[in-house]
């Protein structure tokens, strides 16, 4: 038996990987997966592929991955697939690293670690030999997330998103659903308790990573490796307010808006309409009331060699 790679950040031989592939993620991405697998094999990686048939499979496959056979489990799909894989890995002994082949719609994790979804060689190099960063996970009512979790309009948009429309329209489906939801939404008040203080807003996003919705920075000081959440609290109600936020986000100016509050905390409790959805990594992972906190577990996340340095 080949011994597993020690916790060294850079592997000493090509990793042995279990690729967990969500065939429903993104659009027409199977060729991209094949391109990465061919390169992995050329780099000397032993590759096993398991394909999901339904929601929850990726989590099961990762939870059952044998640490004697694999060094890493690679989520081939969007951020929802990554989320399932890390929830599965959290149930194992912690000896397997997490990697990604970004095949999804938004691929926020890829933006975070500087992985280009179209660059099969960069992805294969990272998986085979890239350094692993030890990242702290978050939890939303005990469900783990890697990038962000939140409540308010964005969670309603995720909950209402038409999967068929997403398959055909990609990111535009989020814009369409956002406008549709915003018109009929009553923007209920959310109360956020953090470190003994109470804040109020209409939307709240607790970020572990800097990016949100794609290549847009929402939380400039967030750091996957830090056991800390950066929480953006958006107070405006109504379509005009959301449009303002929707314009500020791609300009990188969301947290510069005077009414937007940004706080740091290890744990917050969000209350609002009982049962309202909470999104984590772009899927519904909990319902209000929700505690969002730093998890006990860490995961070793495989990154490209030229991954941008996190905020200090
Ligand atoms: N075989 C499958 N059939 C149906 N749903 C699946 C299957 N495998 C995984 N899923 C679910 O599909 C959901 C969406 O997957 P994922 O987020 O990876 O892709 P995406 O939505 O295209 O990408 P992104 O999150 O970047 O927008 C996940 O919540 C996952 O649980």
Written overview of the protein:
There is one protein chain. With 312 residues, the protein is of the alpha+beta class. It has two domains: 115 residues, Rossmann fold; 154 residues, Tumour Suppressor Smad4 (Sandwich). It is built from nine helices and 16 strands. It has a six-stranded antiparallel sheet with strand order 6-5-16-13-8-9, with helices on one face. A six-stranded antiparallel sheet has the order 12-11-10-7-14-15. A four-stranded parallel sheet has the order 2-1-3-4, with helices on both faces. A hairpin with a 2-residue loop joins strand 8 and strand 9. The longest helix has 13 residues. The N terminus is likely disordered. Bound molecules: adenosine-5'-triphosphate (ATP). GO terms for molecular function: ATP binding; kinase activity; metal ion binding. One of its GO terms (biological process) is phospholipid biosynthetic process.
Layout of helices and strands:
Blueprint: E1 16-21, H1 30-42, E2 46-51, H2 57-64, E3 72-77, H3 79-89, E4 97-102, H4 108-113, H5 120-129, E5 132-140, E6 143-145, E7 148-151, H6 153-160, H7 163-169, H8 172-184, E8 190-194, E9 197-201, E10 203-207, E11 229-234, H9 239-248, E12 261-265, E13 267-271, E14 277-280, E15 283-287, E16 290-302
Parallel strand pairs: 1-2, 1-3, 3-4
Antiparallel strand pairs: 5-6, 5-16, 7-10, 7-14, 8-9, 8-13, 10-11, 11-12, 13-16, 14-15
Helix pairs in contact: 1-5, 2-3, 6-8
The structure holds adenosine-5'-triphosphate.
């Amino acid at each position: 038996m080949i011994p597993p790679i020690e916790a060294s950040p850079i592997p000493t031989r090509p990793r042995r990987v279990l690729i967990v592939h969500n065939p429903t993620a993104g659009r027409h991405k199977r060729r991209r997966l094949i391109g990465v697998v061919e390169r992995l094999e050329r780099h000397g990686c032993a590759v096993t592929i398991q394909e999901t048939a339904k929601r929850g499979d990726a989590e099961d496959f990762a939870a059952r991955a044998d640490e004697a056979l694999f060094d890493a489990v690679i989520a081939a799909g969007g951020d929802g697939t990554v989320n399932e894989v890390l929830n599965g890995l959290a149930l194992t002994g912690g000896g397997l690293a997490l990697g990604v082949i970004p095949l999804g719609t938004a691929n926020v994790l890829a933006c975070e670690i500087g992985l280009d979804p179209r660059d099969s060689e960069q992805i294969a190099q990272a998986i085979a030999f890239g350094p692993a960063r030890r990242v702290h996970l978050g939890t939303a009512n005990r469900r783990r997330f890697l990038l962000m979790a939140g409540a308010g309009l964005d969670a309603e948009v995720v909950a209402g998103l038409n999967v068929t429309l997403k398959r055909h329209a990609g990111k535009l489906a989020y814009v369409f659903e956002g406008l549709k939801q915003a018109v009929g939404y009553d923007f209920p008040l959310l109360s956020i308790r953090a470190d003994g203080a109470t804040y109020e807003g209409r939307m709240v996003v607790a970020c572990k990573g800097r990016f949100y919705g794609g290549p847009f920075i929402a939380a400039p000081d967030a750091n996957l490796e830090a056991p800390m959440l950066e929480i953006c609290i958006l107070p405006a109600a109504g379509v005009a307010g959301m449009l303002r936020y929707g314009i500020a986000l791609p300009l990188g100016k969301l947290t510069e808006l005077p009414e937007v509050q940004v706080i740091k905390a290890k744990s917050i409790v969000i209350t609002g309409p009982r049962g309202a959805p909470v999104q984590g990594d772009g899927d519904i992972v909990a319902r209000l009331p929700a505690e969002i906190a730093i998890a006990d577990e860490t995961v070793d996340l495989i990154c490209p060699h030229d991954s941008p340095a996190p905020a200090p």
